[in-house]
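Human: Cast an eye over this sequence-structure pair and say how the chain folds.
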Amino acid sequence: PGVGIAEASAEAATVAARLARAYPKTNQGVGARIVPVWKSQSGVSGILASPMAILGAACGLVLLIACANVANLLLVRAASRQTEFGIRAALGAGPGRLSRQLVSESFLLALLATVAAFPLALWSQNVLTYLVPPTGLPVLLEARPSPRVFLFAALICLASTLISGLPPAVQLVRRNQVDTLKQAGRGNTLNGRSRRLSGVLVTAEVALALAGLVTLGVFLRSLNGLRNTPAGFDYDNVTVCRLFLSTNNYTASEERQFSRRLRARLLDAASVTGAAYSDSIPLGFGLGKWTGVSVDGYAPRPGENMDVHFASVSPGYFDLLRTPLLEGRDFELDDNDAAPGVMIVNESFARRFFDGRGPVGRRVRIFGKPFTIVGMVRDAKYLSLSETPQPYFYTAFDQVHGASGDGGVAFYARTEGATGDFAPVLRREMSAIDPNSAGMTTMPLADYISAAWFGPRVASYFLGVLGGIALLLASVGLYGVMAYSVSQRTREIGIRMALGAGANGVLGMVIRRGVWLAVAGICVGLALTQAMAPLIAPLLYRVGPTDPLSIAAAALVLVAVAGFASLIPALRASRVDPTVTLRQE
């Protein structure tokens, strides 16, 4: 209490430096710093950090699309006020005064919108929690708007006002006001420069929408790739239970004894076909456990990191998860703290330290003690589904548990029926051993390892919402431009039809303009997608940030939306009565 992060971090760094001097063999080069929990590299914070950065960028794209939409609306509104501003200029108002008036009006709109947004933000502050996909673990995401958040949002609104309001203001004040007054009787229309600016804004909307849709597409394909990636073990019909026996003041020896008795009782249960336990669960929210290794006959390269991830498991662990044992034997009940240390390694461990030669019988030092390799199992996924094959080893639970900074015992049971039937059996057997045993959290292993794709799934959900908004805004902007363009070209269309142009020809002319604007936006969007690729690539799995299928799908959707958005104005144009139009003109 009362200590800031910087001060606490400095103190932690001082302690780490003192430890490095006192214990250079183990602590040399090891530092420490304190960070806010949202910067944590483990847990939900670590998993969501990178996807949230992409979502922030996607929110920026949607905001820019909204700004382009508003700019187009203000541009049309400015065209209808040409006469007014011509008179103001004739009465002595300079370009600066006219620009300030337009920007002030835009600021007023932004101020009203900001005030209206405050209660909306308070009402929707928990929407984030509804968009978080279900998982087997309780995940609490609190989004409480603070004064700093409101201030940031208000500043964004003001910046958006400048982005949206300046282009129409610049276009209006640059016009020759004398010519404006002369043309006042012919109707207020956009001049050529303004029409081009309007087209550029729509092109920008489509480009930004393409970037958002392509990002959504590659995230969805990456998520699908993760879901279809083999984990290296069979988690179907397996229930996992996390026991925190230390809440009952169990010592490490008592935890080992309790675990052995509970496994024996579970194996005798009618619905249980296999039972095992370990000190960790693969593919969860944590960073796993690791320790330094010293392998007999292996000379580390200068600066080589000899830390290797590991887990302590019971006999039957590999059979229960159906992880193939390629060489040697499994752990046995006799592998206890009174027996020589043994370990089982995976294929990548053997490839790295033994050049792929048989590892059984070789010796490795961990925790300052010698361990003999008695088996080798097939590689699996340990920390994330997207990880490359990495060295990993297992130790006998009864030999290591309590000496490696354990955090409870994870029990696994394979059942014949639904995994939900296992919880009552577990409670009954635990109570039979110790009526006061507590601290149990039970869930299907398939639900637990959903953490492996939790980050991409959250990103896909949010990107889906933002992509839908971007597509809607782009289609509305395109429709607005096409509708106004048709209304301004009524005389031209009437003359065309009086000279023999058919309704289909007029229909095609209007739709082609909308589609060409979309195509131009797609071309610009491709360049934007290419620029964003280095930022997105590290978050993807088995798909590139410029995936052709995602780009093609997004482009086709935008072209179809452009055609549909142009259809209603085109139908209106094709029904123009040339006689009535020319008489009105």
In short: The two ends are 78 Å apart (CA to CA). The longest helix spans residues 43-79. The mean pLDDT is 83.
